[in-house]
Specification:
Distance between the termini: 120 Å
Helix content: over 70%
Mean pLDDT: 81
Structural class: mainly alpha
Radius of gyration: 36 Å
Order of helices and strands: HHHHHHH
C-alpha cells in the first residue's frame, strides 16, 4: 500500500474522507454520517454541538492510526466503527437513550415557553408578597391601608350624622 500519510491527514479534515482514501469505506461513511448529522442537529440541540469537535478530532486521529495499522499489516481490514449486529442486541438500551435524548430535545424546544411562565409566576408572587408586606406594615403602624386626603370629606349622609353628634 502506497498511501501517503500527509494526504491522509489533509483529507481527514473532512471527517470520513481520509478513511475513504485508505479504502475504509464502512468506517469512513459512519464517521461522515455522525459528523454531518451532528452538524445538522447542533442548531436545534446543544448536545450535538458539543459532539462536533469530539467527532472531528477522533476521526482525524483514527485515520492516522488506521494508516499506520494498514502500513504495518500490509492489509486493509474495513472494520466498521459500530457493529450493527452488536447494536441490535442492545436495542432496548439504545431505545431508552433515544427516548431520553428526545425528551431532552423537547424540553430544550419548550424552554422559552417554560421560562416565560416561570418569569410570570415570579413577577406575580413578588407583587403579591409586596402587597402583603405593605398591608401588614400599615396595620402594625395603625395607619390606614390606603392613603387618604388630609382633608376629610364625608358623604352628605355621614356629615349630617356628625353634625347631630356635636
Amino acid at each position: 500500500m502506497n498511501k501517503s500519510k500527509g494526504l491522509t491527514f489533509i483529507l481527514s479534515f473532512v471527517p470520513g474522507l481520509g478513511h475513504f482514501y485508505l479504502g475504509l469505506m464502512n468506517r469512513g461513511l459512519q464517521f461522515m454520517i455522525m459528523f454531518f448529522a451532528s452538524t445538522f442537529l447542533a442548531d436545534s440541540f446543544f448536545l450535538f454541538g458539543v459532539a462536533i469537535p469530539i467527532i472531528w478530532f477522533f476521526t482525524l486521529f483514527d485515520a492516522l492510526q488506521q494508516h499506520r495499522t494498514i502500513k504495518e499489516r500490509n492489509e486493509i481490514v474495513d472494520e466498521p466503527l459500530f457493529n450493527w449486529g452488536e447494536l441490535q442486541e442492545k436495542k432496548y438500551i439504545i431505545g431508552w437513550v433515544l427516548i431520553g435524548l428526545g425528551g431532552l430535545f423537547l424540553l430544550d424546544q419548550l424552554s422559552p415557553i417554560i421560562d416565560d411562565f416561570i418569569r410570570m409566576s415570579i413577577v406575580r408572587n413578588t407583587v403579591i408578597s409586596a402587597i402583603f408586606i405593605y398591608v401588614g406594615y400599615r396595620l402594625i403602624t395603625g395607619k390606614p391601608i390606603l392613603p387618604t386626603n388630609s382633608k376629610k370629606t364625608l358623604p352628605p349622609v355621614l356629615q349630617e350624622k356628625e353634625e347631630v353628634k356635636e
